Amino acid sequence: MYDAQMPAEKKCPVHAGEGRLSHAPSDHPSVARAKVGVILSNLGTPDATDYWSMRRYLNEFLSDRRVIDYSPWLWQPLLQLIILTKRPFSSGEAYRGIWNTEADESPLLTTTRNQAAKVAEEVQARYGDDVIVDFCMRYGNPSTKDVIERLKDQGCERIVFFPLYPQYSAPTTATACDQAFRVLMKMNWQPSIRTVSAYYDHPLYIDALAKSVERAYAGLERKPDLLVTSYHGVPQRYLMEGDPYHCQCQKTTRLLRERLGWGEDDIKTTFQSKFGPEEWLQPYTVEEVARLAEAGKKNIAIMAPAFSSDCVETLEEINEEIKESFEEAGGESFTYIPCLNDDDAHIAMMMAIIESELSGWVTRKG
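Above: the chain sequence. Below: its structure as tokens.
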């Protein structure tokens, strides 16, 4: 580190321009001007929809002990010999139904790239070239490792790591941060890193959700009987072991309801994507929408506040499996309200959080 008490001939400061070091031998490695990096981190995506691409992606995802915490001695034989021989076919089919064929990538990748581009534009206007914005995936590409190393090579000595999960949970926020820390463990010169906390109750996040509901409802001929807020599920025991996810989901729904000025009967919290035999957080979305239809709620809207970007769980699971369950039970009108994606209100929320995290590290220029 640069030490003001160090003799002048021992110091190695970087010139204001490019990365030439004063008082350094001619073969000294080039050092980029110190900058700050911002990484938007999302869940992940397969590179393609074929069997082997899906198998690689699912193997990385389902081998994560944060996601499936069963003993590897029991889980890995089941995963490798049974699940990964069949599931890549069904998952590939689901992804093909939503695939961005023009860009040849998943919608999650497209949207996350767009989010990063819009954030980068805002950052450039406020901080100039002092801050670099990039994005990574916990599973698949661009990998957390590649992006952190790329920012380090560009001179980023400090990094704001932003997991795009509004509600904290071990299988989402924690594993994203775990991966970033694993990368740092193997670096000789580690950049300092700040991780962004869950933002489930951030006023701008709640307001962005409310605006998306108001916008959707304004385009309907008839107001839905009920709004379902469907969150990705986790095993029930996670709650009992101290994971705050369930409580944060409930608070997000309550704050959204209050922002909209609705009564308690106008909105319902549910959980989707159950996997495996054990009990998960309830009520299960796929079962609850059928119950609502049978109870006379024939016209519902549904949104997924736990997802920052539309993906296979929203575009395929909600719009197909869950919608089908509702209609088979007698439901008549099913309206899906998209995730916040790269909506301007969502980007404004991200920028407010990023500016707070950059405080003390870099000075705003504009």
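The first strand starts at residue 35 and ends at 45.
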